[in-house]
Every structure is written in C-alpha cells, then in structure tokens.
Amino acid sequence: MGRSRLVDGLRAYRLIAWMWIRSTMAYRASFAMTLLGNFAGTALDFVTILLMFSRVDELGGYSFGQVAFLYGLSSAAFGLTDLVIGSVDRLGQRVRDGTLDTLLVRPAPVLAQVAADRFALRRLGRITQGLLVLGYALAVVDIEWTPVKVLLMPVMVISGAAIFASVFVAGAAFQFVAQDASQVQNSFTYGGTTLLQYPPTVFAKDLVRGVTFVLPLAFVNWLPALYVLGLPYPLDLPEWVAFLSPLVAVVCCGLSGLAWRAGLRSYRSTGS
Amino acid sequence: MRAWRLYAAVAAGGFRRYATYRVATAAGVFTNTVFGLILAYTYIALWDERPGLGGYDQAQAVTFVWVGQGLLSVVAVMGGGFEDELIERIRTGDIAIDLYRPADLQAWWLAADAGRAAFQLLGRGVVPMAVGGLVFQLALPTDAGTWLAFLVAVVLGVLVSFGIRYLVALAAFWFMDGAGVQQLAVLAGLFFSGMTLPLNVFPGALGELARALPWSALMQAPADVLLGERTGLALLRTYAFQAAWAVGLLAVGRLVQSAATRRVVVQGG
Questions:
Q1: What is the pTM of this model?
Q2: Is the CB of A148 inside 8 Å of chain B's CB atoms?
Q3: Rounded to whole angstroms, what are the CA distances from A65 to A49, A68, A134, B222, B249?
Q4: Judging by beta carbons within 10 Å of its beta carbon (0-12, 13-18, 19+), is residue B4 exposed, middle or buried?
C-alpha cells in the first residue's frame, strides 16, 4: 500500500512536471531569458561575497576558496530542492483561493501534485551557478583527497537537498494553518541557504547550536564540508558527525511527512 | 482642493489595504528579522577583519543592516507594490477604464503607493529594528532632529522607488508580459540600493557608479542620514540628489505614460 502510493505519486509528479516543461518550451526565447534571469538572480549573493573579498583576505578565518566551497555546496543542494519541489511554497495561495480543492479530488497524492505544479525548468539556473562556484572552489582549495571524501561529496549534496526538501514540506504543512505566511517558510529555506554560504565561525554559538540540534541545517554542508576541507567543526563535535547527513535527512523527511499529513487532515476548504 | 482630498482618500485606502494582511505582515517581519541576523553576523566578521571599512565603525555597519531590513518593503526594493496590479490591468485591458476616470493615472497610483509605504514603515520597519537593538550594539541617533531628517530621506526614497517601478509597470504596454523587466528591476534594486552590501564598500569605479544611480536614493541615502554621516551641507546635497532623481523619473514616467496611452486600443465587446 505504502509502496503503491509512492509509485502513484512519482508518476503523477512526472506527468505534471512534463506538461509544464512542454508548455514552457512553447516559448523558447522567453524560457532562455528566465533561465538567464534565474542564473543572474542567484549569482547576486555570490557577487556580494566577491565584493566582500575585494576588501578582505579572510572572513571568519576562512579564505575565499573555502567560502566558495561552502557556497557551492549549499547552492547546489538548495538548487536541487528548489527545482524538484520549490513550488510547494505556493500552497498557502491555493488554500486561500480554494484551488486546492481541485487537487484533492484528483486520484493522485496531493503532495506530488502541489510539488509538480508550475514545474519551472528555469530553476536549473541556481544549480548551474552553484555547481560552477563549487567547481571553481575545488580547483583553488587544497584538499587532501581520500576515497571517503570523494564519496562524501555527492552524498552531501543529495542529503542536503533532502534536508532542504523536508523544510519546504514542513513549511507547506504550516501554511494549511497560517494561509498567508509563506514568508516564514522563506526565512528557513532561502534564509537557510544564505546562512550556510558563510563560515560557521561567523555566527553566534547559539545560532550554530540551533541549526545543528534543532533545525539541522548544519548537516547540509557545514559538518560534512569541514571534514572534506580538514577544518575544525563548530561546537567541538566528534569527527564522525560528518557522515550523519543521510540519517539526518531520512529523519527530517519522516517528520515533515507526518507534519504534511496532519496539515492536510486539518484542511477546511474556503468553500469558494 | 477636491483633487487633494481624492488622493488623500486613495492613500488612506492603500494604507488600510495593507493593514488587513496581518498574518502576512507578521510573516514578513519574521523574515526581515532572520535575514537581518544572518547579515549582521557576516558584517561583524567583515568589520572585524577591516575596522572602519567604508567609513563605518562596526556598530554603524550593523545598524545599516537593520535599517535595510526595516526599509526593504517600505521602498519596495523587491517590488510587490502597486506595479503588480497595474501590469495586470495593462495586460487585461482594464487600463482603458482607468484612463476614463477623472483622476490622473500617475498621481492615483502614487497616492496608493504612498499609503502602502506608510503602512510598511510602521508595520514592518519598527520590529526588526527593535530586535536588532536587543541582540546587537546599534549606533542609533538620540536626537529627534536626525530621526526627522531620516524620515524626509525615506519619503524621497519612496518617491524615487515609485518613479522606477512606474516605468517598470509601463513597460508592460510594450512587452505585454512584464515579468522579465520586473525581474531585472528587482536584481538592480537589491544590488544598487545597498541592500546586499553598503555602497561605500563597493570598490573603485563600481562604487562611484552605484552611488550615482537612482537606487542609492532608496536605502543608502536614508541609512547614511540616520547614521549621522550626512549633516549640514552634505544633508542638503543628499536631499537634492534624491529629489533630482525623483523629479526626473516622475517626468519620464509622464512622457512614457502619454506615449503608452496612445497605444491603447479599446477592443470593445
């Protein structure tokens, strides 16, 4: 039963996403422009970091290459999440205007429908930009590569994307209750990726504790990335925490799944 | 005189309209506070490395962050004001009805936007600043005069912001889909207003360009006034700079408006 719902969900997601891709491709020039816009828009925060480093050599004890490494990983993981399920932050709008009802009567999981809604291929811009910065960082930063570190790189990006995804879904579940509070969700998603682009040494200890033990964003890039870079962890954690990201991701996804179900059950249509 | 009362009513309507979105306002305040915290810590790291960077001390730099978060929605750097609605009216053709109204199109939207800005200043400006003051050492002025001078700079900043966004919205007459132009305007606004990094930290010619562009009137100028960096003659020069951009942009807005409205074809039916 559980399995078949997952298969149903993925199938519905694929069909809806493909429909949106085809509709986007009907206007290719417009697509190219929005893709470029997405790329430039997300590059803006890296330009800010570049400008900062035009005035200093280090930030929080980190070199430009090391910050670029954190930035690239955070952007790639977040970009992946944003591409796949970034649309769920429109849920509050759907609750407000009543169009969520249409999705409820369709024979496909609601989460898959909401996630695939207005699937925007232009969001490839963010991943591309993140991967370019990551590539640059890998070229300039000295890393003592080991097989484990090489393996940790893709594991980190995928677990990081899953952690961000659970934040998106939990945020959407919150919007069932607070219909026009999508900005709260943005604080944790866009705010989270911005936070992770900077070294943990920059922030107050309590803030770092919060994003390690409460909302475990530190597992997206900080903890595994510092292992790869061979830098000391914040909060004096043991070395093996770098490998916890997949586990943390699974737990987060489970919790946000429960939150989503609770949210969906509490839903009352506006009746309009 | 009657015209004045009409526009005052429109402005009051703009204020009330935004005042009804209480949850959204609270959510916005929360976002501004979270981003303010993140930015403030990065600025502290930056000023730790280079004390006195851009002529600010560390307390001024942190204050700059919170002024920015407080003003972000007031001067609508990321858009989201009247222009969404105006673009939609241009796209659907409802603009034809507006043109028959016995009110000036530009003045009408300016009044509505002024009401919006006033609400955002009270609704989204005060709380992030208070939180910033609790967590960090801020360099806020203690004399009423500087706060008053700051308010004047904010009003001029809102005028410049309106001037830019009015042109962005009118572009929909030619492009039909205003999304691309809007996206560009948001990018330029975020970068050149000082929202991401104070413009006096920008290096060399880029810094000079950034400080001369209209976006610096939105946030950099009011922030400098509040931080006590512009007094006496420098204050007057700042006002003159903002006012010149406001008048220039509003005048171009009128020209474009008359060119645009000649393009309107009422389809009937």
A1: 0.92
A2: no
A3: 11, 5, 9, 35, 42
A4: exposed
pLDDT in tens, chain B (269 residues): 678 899 999 999 999 999 988 888 999 999 999 999 999 999 999 999 999 999 999 999 999 999 999 999 999 998 888 888 898 888 888 888 888 888 889 999 999 999 999 999 999 998 999 999 999 999 999 999 999 999 999 999 999 999 999 999 998 888 766 777 888 889 999 999 999 999 999 999 999 999 999 999 999 999 999 999 999 999 999 999 999 999 999 999 999 998 888 877 655 54
**HSE toward the beta carbon, residue B144, CA cutoff 13 A:** 0
Which one of B42, B62, B182 makes the best mutation probe of the A interface by having the most chain A beta carbons within 10 Å? B42
The verdict on a CB contact (< 8 Å) between A198 and B35 is no
From the list B46, B183, B203, the residue facing A37 with the nearest CB is: B183
Burial zone of A141 (CB within 10 Å; 0-12 exposed, 13-18 middle, 19+ buried): middle
Sign of the Cα pseudo-torsion (B217, B218, B219, B225, in order): positive
> Are B21 and A56 in contact (CB < 8 Å)?
no
